[in-house]
Amino acid sequence: MEKDCTFFIKPVSDLGEVTIERIIFNFNGSIREGYLHLLEHLWVRANKSWFDDYESKMNIFNALTDKNRITFILIYTESTVNTNKLIFDLNFNEQDFLIEKKTIYEERKLYSDSTPDVDIVLGSLRTIEAFDLIVLKNMMHQMNYKKIRFHFSSKNNGKYMKNPTINIKKNSIIWKDSNTIQLKDFYDYKVLLTILKVFKLTNESFCFNINEAKENYEITFDDYEVFDFMLKNKDNVLKRYQLLLTNTQLFIEQTIYLFDLFGFNLDILDFWREFNWEVLEK
User: SUPFAM superfamilies, from UniProt (predicted)?
Assistant: First the structure.
């Protein structure tokens, strides 16, 4: 297991204290079609009593499985919630395995999609029928997991993580023409990418393309005038973005996205104020 991470995040609402915890299962070896979805089911089943108690307190739980990993997201307000009591060392038995195998098979029949991208996650009816308990147990030896906790509080408890200053320096821009910006620093590229993502969230007509194949990082705009308009109205863009974040689901997605991109808690408000906007202006 990797070391757990805990972050304290600045006040965002008057809801009191809320914790978002993300439990991530990663796998080092090859993954057979549909087996991660099966493991998701079996892990929840192994912790059924814990989840029954957890959800009875109106806490939120969701699971996201893709072709490489399983992510469990828990959102709770109860200070008594203890995820350390969850079972991670699973000892699968034949009965549980067969029950969940049948459940997944019936679920899969509800979906008409049968493409490689869908089948690698959910499995096809054929591969689900062929699920093997020994294969699953062998796959577990290649698994590791980590837990990341975000604590949101409407009260200042003095434990907030200090955000580093983020700035694109002028010499990070290699060149810029009527519709293209090119950067030479990967960190600066991530900063600019964050800005563009915010622009896109607040204006669907704003479109850009990224070329990461080159030594440098090239960003091209479908319509530079739209980008220029967003720059000139960046304060209003920020206000609209903050309003969008009142949607809990989007707020969680953005928090996770920023942590994945930078590796720490990024405060967009401070970032927006400190950013060197001159490098983007004509």
Answer: LuxS/MPP-like metallohydrolase
Highest mean pLDDT among 61-75, 118-132, 152-166, 252-266: 118-132
Domain membership of residue 197 as a residue range: 170-280
Kindly report, residue by residue over 79-98, the tens digit of the pLDDT: 778 888 888 877 788 999 99
On whether residue 165 sits in a domain, the answer given is no
Residue 161 lies in a domain: no
* Number of folded domains that form the chain: 2
Name the average pLDDT for the chain.
78
188 and 148 inside one domain: no
Judged against a pLDDT cut of 60, whether residue 3 lies above it is answered with no
Give yes or no: residues 131 and 217 share one domain: no
Residue 194 confidence class, pLDDT cut points 50, 70, 90: confident
| 55 and 188 assigned to the same domain | no
Instruction: Tell me which residue has tokens 């912790």.
Output: 47
User: Are residues 181 and 196 in contact, defined by beta-carbon separation less than 8 angstroms?
Assistant: no
Indicate if 205 and 86 belong to the same structural domain.
no
